[in-house]
From TrEMBL:
Pfam families reported for this sequence: GST_C, GST_N_2
Family annotation (Gene3D superfamilies): 1.20.1050.10, Glutaredoxin
Phylogenetic placement of the source organism: Bacteria, Pseudomonadati, Pseudomonadota, Alphaproteobacteria, Hyphomicrobiales
Alphabetical keyword list: Plasmid
Domain GST N-terminal as annotated: residue spans: 13-98
Domain GST C-terminal: 103-231
Organism: Agrobacterium pusense
Record-given protein name: Glutathione S-transferase domain protein
GO cellular component: cytoplasm
Length: 241
């Protein structure tokens, strides 16, 4: 377990966040916090879930019905257990630096890309669960479902490519929520499942390579046994570009 910067000017935390070190939903929050560096936030990061070691502790798991992370708890005891809602809450309560965009057009583009990658992960998750060795014995394997969801996942990336311009970040001139959500998804697909960005997505690949060099996007450690079963998802399911 790692505890990271609690920083209120008076020395007390206003917001607590409990999170895991890897995975697309946790990484959205981890990357975002590293980029925004909000004051008044205490972050507790657990390496990975381990029921035998009570990690995360039962009192943290009990904060949400599913017992999953990330979880945000504020000074009033309000609990939020959904990654995008956590990002929105922090943006509403700690507006600077702004990571939603500076104009209506920028904010709309950020929201669009965030929702596209959220939808992309739904397809990717179904592809992985029903097509990889990691999902065997947990859900019913389905080559047909895996192929359909792989096609839909790559389709979302191609749509993102069409939206992108030659700008430093995925939605414009500044880092935004869209960069955090997209990076978490693509990093997980690449590092854990060995699924690359389609070769047609030149702008997306250029952005990914550049953003990967930022300290916020440092590659997390993955449980090697699980990664071994997940790695090579395209070969496992016979999917090709």
């Amino acid at each position: 377990m790692l505890r990271a910067r609690p920083v209120d000017k008076e020395g007390s935390a206003v917001i607590e966040i409990f999170n895991f070190a890897f995975g697309p939903y946790p990484q959205r929050v981890n990357i975002y916090l590293a980029e925004k560096r909000p004051e008044g936030v205490t972050v507790t990061v657990y390496t990975e879930p381990d029921r035998r070691a009570n990690t995360p502790p039962p009192e943290i798991q009990a904060l949400t019905p599913m017992g999953s992370l990330p979880i945000l708890r504020d000074a009033d005891g309000i609990v939020i257990g959904q990654s995008l809602a956590i990002l929105d809450y922090i943006e509403d309560t700690i507006p600077e630096p702004n990571m939603r965009g500076n104009t209506p057009a920028e904010r709309a583009k950020v929201r669009q890309i965030v929702h596209m990658f959220d939808e992309a992960f739904t397809f990717f998750g179904l592809w992985a669960r029903h097509g990889s060795a990691l999902g065997q014995g947990v859900v019913r394997s389905s080559r047909e479902l895996a192929e359909i969801c792989a096609e839909r996942y790559f389709g979302q990336l191609l749509l993102t490519e069409m939206l992108m311009r030659k700008e430093p970040f995925i939605a414009g001139e500044d880092v935004t929520l869209a960069d955090c959500v997209a990076m978490a998804m693509l990093q997980y697909a690449s590092d854990f499942y060995a699924v690359p960005i389609p070769p047609e997505c030149v702008k997306l690949q250029t952005w990914f390579d550049r953003f990967s060099q930022r300290p916020s996007a440092k590659r997390p450690s993955y449980p090697e046994e699980q990664r071994g079963k997940a790695f090579g998802l395209m070969d496992q399911t016979g999917v090709r570009f």
